[in-house]
Design goal:
Layout: E1 5-11, H1 15-26, E2 33-40, H2 46-51, E3 59-64, H3 69-77, E4 84-87, E5 93-94, H4 98-109, E6 113-116, E7 133-136, H5 138-146, E8 157-160, H6 161-166, H7 179-188, E9 194-197, E10 202-203, H8 218-234, H9 240-263, H10 271-290, H11 296-307, H12 309-325
Parallel strand pairs: 1-2, 1-4, 2-3, 6-9
Antiparallel strand pairs: 4-8, 5-10, 6-8, 7-9
Helix pairs in contact: 5-7, 5-9, 7-8, 8-9, 9-10, 9-12, 10-11, 11-12
């Protein structure tokens, strides 16, 4: 009833945000934790900040040569002693009851996998009025992870360490974009019970200009495409619903990849990539639009993306600027 939780924090040059992250973890209401902070070859003051908290023995500071976020997480997984694993990014921070909430979900259903579907992404968001808890099978869990209803990646989730080890599951170090989706979709398909809740406990920053999710980098879309191909190839739960949600995910991914090129006025420079992303979008959009699994908002985006891609790119740029401006902060 009081399992040890290993909280893994990959860190690379996030000194501007790291203190908020570590303080929020040390102040958790659930005390039986170890915090594996992996300094992945930072060149800023991240290590100095970590050393300032070395008085708390729950903080385990690990060092390695820079190898990327997948490598950093794997390094910690190999050393984690907890019965369960949670992940937090070094530029984010969490509510005091983050780990307590995840543990309560696990104990309530003996779940292999616990997911908080919502998080705080902008400073105007408030806690959900009606906190809901639901148990899913692995097929439905795979669908929700592929949908837009959950933050993509390892954040906001609790994993059973013994199942990770049984599957010999680690992050693919060849992936730096989409590596989290690859990990969680693989894990979900082997989970007998998945428990989800809409309670918000995680503060997901959207104003870190150095983050892979915010800066323009065409390689991330190429790498993300490889991740989606791998996920599709290795899917063991292949039914109408899971394949439908995978198609929707691919459709929206390639649409936004092509929009990012237009937003950054890079179509001439990356003409071949734009044509490729656009062709993948066109290939998947009909099935995505035809199914009721696609939200009305997504269908509207698809229509505008088909007819007026430059307009949608301009709108998306404004949306990103608004998100950046209103991002959560301490």
């Amino acid at each position: 009833m009081n399992p040890l939780i290993s909280v893994i924090v990959p860190i690379y040059n996030v000194g501007s945000y790291l203190e908020d992250c570590i303080v929020s973890l040390l102040n958790q209401s659930y005390k039986n934790i170890e915090i594996l902070a992996v300094d992945d070859g930072s060149t800023d003051n991240s290590l100095e900040i970590l050393n300032g908290f070395s008085y708390d023995k729950r903080l385990i500071i690990l060092h390695k040569q820079n190898g990327g976020v997948s490598s950093a997480r794997n390094y910690a997984l190999d050393r984690a002693k907890g019965e369960f694993i949670a992940f937090v990014d070094g530029d984010d921070f969490v509510a005091e009851d983050y780990i307590e909430t995840l543990v309560e979900l696990q104990i309530g259903s003996n779940a292999d996998f616990c997911i908080l579907t919502d998080c705080y992404e902008n400073k105007h968001q408030k806690q959900a009025k009606n906190i809901k808890v639901k148990n899913l099978g692995n097929s439905d869990a795979l669908c929700i992870l592929l949908s837009s209803k959950v933050v993509v990646g390892s954040l906001n989730k609790l994993f059973r360490k013994s199942l990770i080890d049984k599957l010999n599951l680690r992050y693919d170090t060849k992936l730096f974009y989409g590596e989290g989706l690859d990990f969680i979709t693989t894990y979900a398909q082997h989970s007998k019970i998945v428990t989800i809740s809409n309670k918000r406990c995680y503060f997901y920053r959207k104003n870190n200009s150095g983050s892979a999710t915010t800066k323009f980098n065409l390689n991330k879309y190429n790498n993300g495409g490889i991740s989606l191909e791998k996920i599709e190839k290795n899917m063991i739960i292949r039914n109408k619903n899971t394949l439908t949600f995978l198609n929707i995910h691919k459709c929206m991914f390639y649409l936004y990849a092509s929009l990012d090129i237009l937003e950054n006025k890079a179509k001439k420079e990356h003409r071949n990539e734009y044509k490729l992303f656009r062709s993948y979008f066109l290939k998947t959009q009909f099935k995505a639009f035809a199914t009721t699994k696609t939200s009305l908002y997504q269908k509207g985006i698809i229509i505008v993306g088909l007819l007026f891609p430059r307009l949608l790119a301009a709108m998306n740029k404004i949306r990103k600027e608004r998100i950046y401006k209103n991002s959560v902060s301490k």
